[in-house]
Amino acid sequence: MDSRQQDIVDEFALFGDWSERYQYLIDLGKKLPEYPEADRNEHWRVLGCQSMVWLKPEGSAARMDFSATSDSAIVRGLIALVLRVYSGRSAEEIASTEPEFVEGIGLSGHLSPTRKNGLAAMLAKIREYARATLI
Q1: Per-residue pLDDT tens for 63-118?
Q2: Of 46, 49, 122, 126, which is the active-site residue?
Q3: Which of 6, 23, 67, 69 is most buried, most CB within 10 Å of its CB?
């Protein structure tokens, strides 16, 4: 596990139960930068999420950054974690980095099936954007 993901696992280990972890997720989501209203459109929407999620890539194969938001507080927290792991990396790194933090903090056992699907859709979209820059 790379250091970004290990940092996330270490942070979540500080919380005793899942109510505290959910609150931490919500707090992380509140700290996301403002997402432009103009980018809240179908072009940047991530399909497969029950909540509305928008994800926009920027940069090149050498370094990609992402901005994203959701209409759900918990999903915004998930976005914050995903962006910490994948933003600021090369497209090659993004394509080859497995989201080990999901299991590392026990998320897969505490997300509803629809949120799991949404998280998987976000991760797939990030990788899709990365692969597109490598062509």
Answers
A1: 999 999 999 999 999 999 999 999 999 999 999 999 999 999 999 889 889 999 99
A2: 49
A3: 69
